From TrEMBL, chains A, B:
Source organism of the structure: Rhodohalobacter barkolensis
Domain Peptidase M20 dimerisation: 193-352
Name of the protein: Dipeptidase
A Pfam family it matches: M20_dimer
Keyword flag Ribonucleoprotein: no
Molecular function per GO: metal ion binding; peptidase activity
Organism placement in taxonomy: Bacteria, Pseudomonadati, Balneolota, Balneolia, Balneolales
Amino acid sequence: MSSVEKYIKENAKSFEEQLFNFLRIPSVSTDSKHKGDVKKAAQFLIDQLNEIGLDKVTLHETEGHPIITAEKCPHEDRPTVLIYGHYDVQPSDPDELWETPPFEPTVKDGRVYARGSSDDKGQSFTHVKAIEAYMKTGTDLPVNVKFILEGEEEIGSPNLIPFIKANKELLKCDMVLISDTAMFGEDQPSITYGLRGLAYMEVHVTGPNRDLHSGVFGGAVENPANALAEIIAKLKDEDGVIQIPGFYDDVEPMTAEMREAYKQLPFDEKGYKKDLNLTALHGEKGYGTLERASARPSLDVNGLWSGYQGEGAKTVLPAKAGAKISMRLVPDQEPQKIAELFSDYVNSIAPDTVTVEVEEHHGGYPVVIDLDFYGLKAAAKAFEEVYNKDVLFAREGGSIPIVADFKKVLGVNSILMGFGLTKDALHSPNESFSLKDFHRGIQTSAKFFELLPEYSE
Amino acid sequence: MSSVEKYIKENAKSFEEQLFNFLRIPSVSTDSKHKGDVKKAAQFLIDQLNEIGLDKVTLHETEGHPIITAEKCPHEDRPTVLIYGHYDVQPSDPDELWETPPFEPTVKDGRVYARGSSDDKGQSFTHVKAIEAYMKTGTDLPVNVKFILEGEEEIGSPNLIPFIKANKELLKCDMVLISDTAMFGEDQPSITYGLRGLAYMEVHVTGPNRDLHSGVFGGAVENPANALAEIIAKLKDEDGVIQIPGFYDDVEPMTAEMREAYKQLPFDEKGYKKDLNLTALHGEKGYGTLERASARPSLDVNGLWSGYQGEGAKTVLPAKAGAKISMRLVPDQEPQKIAELFSDYVNSIAPDTVTVEVEEHHGGYPVVIDLDFYGLKAAAKAFEEVYNKDVLFAREGGSIPIVADFKKVLGVNSILMGFGLTKDALHSPNESFSLKDFHRGIQTSAKFFELLPEYSE
């Protein structure tokens, strides 16, 4: 056992206590009455980073909550890893559904229950402790490390991208390391190597200038709700294929290697259906469920409204109908281009008997990390040494916009080294994090830094 | 001028004052705190009917508000006319939008402003005054008349049908006379000879057992909102033809005479579109706008809901979606049969990836009075003599369920002799009624009774 490993083992209890102190700070970024608490959490990290001996530890004020940077770069000729994490948390409400107080960490069955335990205080803190193990044991840090820790992830990171753009030199690196995702299952280390992008649209259909009596006008005037339904029905065919012209033009076809990686994933379709109480699944023809949910683009109605939604019957021919419709994107689809194709198509199929307006909400780029990237290989090896099990490579269906932004602005890949589990209840009452994975996370991080130089050669 | 006409002319002012007293009673049937007022309005009519010398004037208590009957049947060999009206009114709220108090009748530019002025106190009172003119002048009443006046029309007449069924002998008649509709335009007498029926359905589509993250599950799980839109889109084709198998089987085709009657109606399609702020109308191919709105069946979404309807973007794949969908029916479509056909069709096109439930709200039978019916002809002639203008025969797109019920239970046609105008603002603030039409209504009613015997021969 190396002195780093020994240090991590011997300080396990102390690391937990420090994490609990971190979790006691209710750093809810969306709630202005917690502004002081968010600052307090930032100060907690500043103290940590100073204490372990990092250089250039800096708290950068923004228009919102602060951004923290720090670094230790002992080797000009070795890779630089930029560690990203966030110290803000989601609100705890509904508080009455928590079995223990959200900001009083409570350990049950080897899990710590507290808001932020998994997302992302517990996960991001692993890297701080891994680097501490090198610094405090006088072990040469095998790579260069930099930190960027923000306090606004739960509110959409409004100040992060401008900061990155303005500080490219400070943040210059060879890869980003992020622990803010889940493993494929308990004791099953996994690396997320792909995330879908997003184009989120809103469609408004307007017919007559007022709600009409459906008896008096029904049959003579186009009904905006019927028209909207017809528009939505034309967005996909019966095989689940999206009908927007040009929609698939930039979709990178799945390679044999990718499809093989999907086959390796231990997926229980029966259990998946049972969990959702569905007798049948549905998606794009020719692809498996996991592929449809992460490697292929999708289109979903997220919201729908028109006319009378109350109890009983109201004979109204509504003046308006609306829908929120979003598309998950895969490389190399561009959110802006997809939004335009959607808008053009919807306008082209809209009848001239109604007025259709299409607006765009926020979007995000899809991202896939090449499985040949040496950082991924080193991370996989580190996981395998600690967990004693082969890593699964998986793509996720959701979006983490910052990953695409790091690629765009800094030109680097991100390694999504998640230590969470889907049962962690992120954003929900009774969020928790496995303490076993907290410790294995620290070990995996330390191992990753140790292994990375040889993979980079 | 006959003594009846003279009496009506000489008592014009007194009739107005009596109507205003009737309008001062806030007989809001839906509001239990006005229960005493509804009773007071009933008593007002009882006093009127007794005062003019009708027989068997009776107030029948029900589980709700009372029903009044009365009659004068001097001629065994002549037709009997059952006059239907209602003395209850809609609530007056929002009161702040009334320019004058809703229960203090105010005359402006020849119109009386008050809740119930047109719907239906003012209109139904015309017949009371017409009969009074015969009785008070000692003129032989040319026909037999009966009254049925209810206090629950605005709450769906829950006690009326059972009462009619239980009192068929008391209500035995050759036709029903109802003044509770609007004329086609100012100074343009019109008779509504058809009303559409109604089948009102609600469709619930359920997918997964909970709202899902559209990033994680989008593409793999059928979206209930998309599925609902696809179901709705299949209810009609691009020509506006309803696709439910068997839907048109019982539709009575329009005769050449009917279509000719439609052509006679002074319809300004340009003005109609302008009023609704529409550049184009839409409906079943092969029919004109008025035909589509009243002589042909229709299908409309009345309400639609699913997922997130708030501001901004929420990436939810909703667990549920729902719609209210109603169909207007024409003879000889039966609401119950149509409801079943709808339900069968929706179930047959629903994908097996979701659960679809269809429920039925209230329905109503369509009705059309044969234009050859002598009562209609007598009513038309009476209108023409008083208004000095040819009557228009029109069908309405809405429903007055009681008309179909009179046909079903008593086996008789109804004559819809409306004296209102669309600008009367029924159910809205500042309801009003033209006093000129109030007086012409009394004259038309009296003339109708005078002319009816010769048309019945």
